[in-house]
TrEMBL record:
The keyword Membrane applies. Gene3D superfamilies: Cytochrome P450. PANTHER family: CYTOCHROME P450 2U1 (PTHR24300:SF397), CYTOCHROME P450 508A4-RELATED (PTHR24300). This is Cytochrome P450 2B1-like. GO terms for cellular component: endoplasmic reticulum membrane. The chain crosses the membrane at residues 12-31. Belongs to the cytochrome P450 family. It comes from Octopus sinensis (East Asian common octopus). It is a peripheral membrane protein. The gene is LOC118760847. It comes from the Eukaryota. GO terms for molecular function: heme binding; iron ion binding; oxidoreductase activity, acting on paired donors, with incorporation or reduction of molecular oxygen, reduced flavin or flavoprotein as one donor, and incorporation of one atom of oxygen; steroid hydroxylase activity.
Amino acid sequence: MDVSASYFVDVINLQSLLIGLITLLLVRWLITRSKYNYNLPPGPIAFPIIGNIPQMATTTDINLKMKELRKQYGDIFRLKFGSETLVIVCKTEWILEGLVKKGEEFKGRPFWMYVPQRLIQKKGVSFNTGKEWKDLKKFTISTLRDLGMGKKKLEEHIYLETQSLTDAFQSHNGKPFSLKDPLAHFSLSIVYYIIFDERIRFGEPEFQEIVDDLRFFFSSINAFMPENFFPFLRFVLWNSPLEELIKNNKKIRSYIKEKIRQHKETFNADYIRDFIDVYLLTLEKEPNSESLSEENIFQAIVDLIMAGTDTTATVLNWAFVHMAKYPDIQNKCRAEIEKITDLNRPVTMEDKRHMTYVAATLLEVQRIAPVVTLTVPHAATVDTTLGGYDIPKNTIVQFSLMDAHYDPTYWDKPEEFRPERWIGENNELKKNEAYMPFSLGKYCK
């Protein structure tokens, strides 16, 4: 066979190989398509491989972007990130169905996402699931209750910190100032006292550093980070926040570990001072417990510091904003407090049941300005449906709490700030199933 004939045969063989390969891929695609012919929610056109990352990574306002996508694609829509599908649910009826009625089917967590896997490692309360989560949540709530939630010792400390907050306000002598740092310090000081049985005063460098670290963490992390789906991007993207997040997380964890080490040196099982002591006592009594393991309880402490500080400070910030914006409501709150305390003693937890208008105002603050606008990512544990669409197993799902709080079906003139909407005919506080400032259901988190 001459050279030209040999070359011709090689070309034919290569073409046959390519045709065969394409045919196999086509058959596989057709089989897969017929096997998994899901009726998925609509969504924007996704780029090959990277999906909708370019659209989401460039937005500076996630809430505004969600609003635009809902207007374009409806009350439930789909986004693609690499090979992952993320479904956003905006209609209150379907949010209630997913979080409550079908809570078991959406109780999963997408542990395969890189950021939670790298930073949390399926431990603690915020990103755990199953028996471990139930046991740890029960342990955490029980410990907080035993340490003084609603008790006099903690009330006295809160009053002390409230005085410090007032002093910080007055130090500006009536000039404008930002509430950001004082409220963050105040919130952290309460959580810090419960966990470490220590008090840090306003303005201390150590305290400010913790506040700055927590603020950076919450301002940087979100489910739409490209690194969540393509971890290698942290080595490619210029100025990727993930590396800083990892360093920040290590710094916070190292700080807590040092506090635990100090506690071990002075630990006395007969004199429990704080959450750390309960942590050490539990490890001593139940060394083989999987749910209450050292790693799980340690992460629960991290969760308490990070979530407890940021959420409380944000709620207080919005409360001040609305009191300044609506002085008539501020006056009504003050009048109710004055009536009960005569302004000659601090407010106590016992007074709470008599302060209907103040309680209604705080509920309205959290309705109109929810701290959490989207739930943490859930994952479907089975093939299921929601809103008339198929939700395949392992699909990542987030529920829009902001949309539930502004749903005119459940709220009269939802854009208005009206504490009165929470007060019944007999001056009792009313309930509304669309109110879910920190999510809802059996697996609320």
